[in-house]
Please model this.
Amino acid sequence: MRNQILIPTILASALALGFAIAGYTQEKTEVRHIPAPNTDIASGVAMYGAYCAVCHGADGKGNGPAATAFKVAPTDLTLLAKKNGGKFPDFKVSNAIRGDGSVTAHGSREMPMWGDVFRDINRDESKVTLRVHNLTQYIASLQQK
Ligand code: HEC
Model:
């Protein structure tokens, strides 16, 4: 179903068992679907924590608990400016998040289409755009010099 997001079982375990998470780190992470939680549209940091950190890591470096479940490693989001000659590629990033356009060249895209997920939370297209914008701004703030 479209209004669901990927979430690794390790995360569910972490929520239920708190610090017992360490006991799971050696196991292969299985990914399952849960309904996308609603979040504060205005808060890039809250949305990032709810939707992105599980794969890209709390610090954006691509080492979230679900990272090992994918063939393509989640991108280190702190190096996007560095890899683009020092300029943060706003447009490319917002397209990659939204999921339309052909920015992601890989044949099988592992990164969820967030535009669809956000549209299912609220059909208002301006709100979808605002979520993508605020997430893009938040990722811009994570860039390493
Ligand atoms: C289920 C794991 C997963 C989740 C959750 C996830 N991503 Fe990704 N993301 C990936 C993977 C894997 C890639 C690598 C590229 C690919 O697979 O196409 C990626 C790539 C990206 C890129 C492209 C970077 C570039 O090279 O230009 C951006 C930007 C990005 N993710 C942002 C986000 C944001 C923002 C969120 C939360 C709204 C998010 N991701 C959630 C797995 C994930």
